[in-house]
Predict the 3D structure of the following.
Amino acid sequence: MKQHQSVFKRHCQKVCKPEVATSIKRIYQYFLLPWLVAILVVACNHASVPETQSSTNCRTVEHAAGETCVPPSPQRLIALGPPTMADALSVGIKPIGTVFYFDETPPYLEGKLDEIELIGKIPEQPNLEKTLTLNPDVIIGVEGGAESIYSQLSQIAPTVLGRWKGYPSWKDHFNFVAEVLGKTEEAEKVWAHYEQRVQELRAALDNNYQDIAVSFVHICCGTIDIDFKNSFNGMILDDVGLRRPPAQEVVIEGGITSISEERLMDIDGDILFVATTSKESEELLEELKQNPLWSQLKAVKQGRVYAVDYATWRGGNPLAADAVINDLFKYLVEDTTAS
């Protein structure tokens, strides 16, 4: 800049009158100088753009909110929900941040959540300021969860939303998360492990449960809910070849519905798995047991009612699926004593 000023001064000393020189100097100060500074600022900003933002160094992923270019191998993931978080853990990526909907860590996630920052609790939206400070390189959520703040999240990091139609989508969502993270080979190994466990359980069950109906009911948030054939646990039960009661052996949107106490016989099965979520839901279950219909349930008569963990049986991810299979081994193969 000083060199330009020296040239300007020498030139004016030779050919300019004092008043003309002053005018030219003012033009330089007020017009040319800011223009040169602007060029330098743009050049510096362009040089500082992260390499992962370049379209030549990312992969285009199609998702529920459009198309997004994500890094080839993201490492700093924020997962907007437990299924997404556990999906990432299944393929070897530990998220740096997540949102929860449970108060206590489910047994299947014990010891796996260290160093994962909590940025919110469902149904609340994640804390955007906290999300920004974590400096993620990709954010993964689901449709129906983060659309209202999608534009803000996208300004923090490349953000994708999986197509989520409830827990019937759990297998597709796992594959989507693996694709976004560039972990499709690891996903194939996860599915191979799942299939191996399914086949092991099938072999252990043999033909002993061909005519046995397995029922599942969970009590949450003041309602009695049953999961159908296309729910998370319903798909696992179907994969291992276990039959459901007629009222549950159907496919409906979302895979779940609430029932009244008058419809208690919808949960009638030879074996009944029951899950509660809180002290209030446990109290509701005790009230339910006072209903005359409860004592008419086949599983109650045969002493085959088993308490299982709610967050596990509705986990919607491979880690939870493995834990559900563990429960099935425990109660259907290893132990026939009702809890």
User: Anything to note?
Assistant: Residues 1-54 have pLDDT under 50 and may be disordered. The longest helix spans residues 18-47. Residues 2-47 form one domain. The two ends are 84 Å apart (CA to CA).
